Hints:
By secondary structure, the protein is mainly alpha-helical.
Amino acid sequence: SPEEIFTSPKEARTRQFLRRILDREPGVEEEAPEPVPVAGPIPGVLPDMA
């Protein structure tokens, strides 16, 4: 699974969480408060991966 690629549990969890959101129908994530906090870690993770 793609999660195994990431050595950091946090990165793997974030990637898995994003996949779960993308799996949902459009509009569902809008009413869910979850995607908001997710937007925080991502900018910090991307530069870390690069």
